[in-house]
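Ticket #4471: structure output looks truncated?

Reporter: J.K.
Steps to reproduce: submitted the chain below (210 residues) through the standard prediction queue, then opened the result file.
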Amino acid sequence: MFIYIVRHGETEANVHGYLQGWLDKPLNEKGRSLAVMTGQGMKGIRFDSCISSPLIRARETAEIILRESGNGDVPVMTDDRIKEINFGSSERTDVKDASISWFFANPSITYRFESGESILQVMERTQSLLKELIERDDDKTYLISTHGCALRAMLNFLYDDPSDYWHGHVPYNCCVNIIEAKEQRVGLIADDRIYYDESMIVDRYKRKPS
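Returned output as attached by the reporter:
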């Protein structure tokens, strides 16, 4: 079994640097281009199934990748468990604001945003989907389209250092992580792979020096 997990392409919220969370914003032109290049880079991979967050930026990314990789006949199913973290009253906050900058530096996984969620809650729901797939052990290939915080939450138990929540950095737009699972043995065989030119990477969440 192979599971390809991708973060959505760029949105205007990414460009302007504010928290999206459950805000339902579409990809921008560059975001669609990144998804096109990612899909073209994945030609030759036959996906048996695709599961996406119901938020439009993730669904659109999945649809483009499937089309461009030659899997346009694969339907996109949605699952609320892989939605982005709900920032509650902090949604639309500038990511550089002092009230939120800690989240991208050294986040507490138990802190719950007012009217929203904690990272721990996101870990529980995203990992429940991933582990459900792994337990099937059905020798199929899956595409999962999700979000930055949700992706890190989903993969946290597979990282060498789970205490480093962001695994070095927030996942880049349209980066792809690949899991191979067989007979309950699970390994991360590709870590934040990109299928477009590295000069197009934009890291808007760089950690401040400690």
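Triage note (M.O.): checked the attachment and the full token line is present. The two ends are 40 Å apart (CA to CA).
Status: closed, working as intended.
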